[in-house]
Design a protein that fits this description.
Number of strands: 5
Distance between the termini: 13 Å
Strand order of the largest sheet: 1-5-2-3-4
Strand content: 25-35%
Shape: globular
Largest sheet: 5 strands, mixed
Number of helices: 2
Low-confidence stretches: none
């Protein structure tokens, strides 16, 4: 199965978030073809979640996994360290008190 270029997926995701009135920003633009994507969901109370897409070998699928649920400061520090090391990484930050990210929407798979 061929994969959608990362830049195209990010554009579609940003459009989808906009349609749902979820404020979102691309804070780090990575490789347009094959860069990984991290999604930070800021709850606007000093805490946040960090989501990464990971490959599940057993199920042979790529799925979104919440890798951190911490203070916004701790997540920002992890993002800072990773983007300094990996220039191909995309980082999207969105704001949602309810932690709505739409990453469970099948249309974004």
């Amino acid at each position: 199965m061929s994969r959608l270029a990362t830049g195209i997926w990010v554009g579609a995701y940003m459009t989808r978030l906009g349609l749902e009135n979820i404020p979102a920003y691309v804070v780090q633009k990575g490789d347009a073809t094959a860069g990984a994507v991290w999604v930070k969901v800021a709850r606007l109370d000093g805490t946040a979640e960090l989501w990464e897409r990971q490959y599940d070998l057993m199920a042979d699928v790529r799925q979104w996994v919440r890798t951190m649920d911490e203070s916004e400061f701790e997540i920002d520090e992890r993002i800072r360290r990773e983007t300094a090391r990996d220039r191909d990484l995309w980082v999207i930050e969105l704001e949602s008190r309810e932690s709505r990210s739409l990453l469970d929407d099948p249309s974004l798979a």
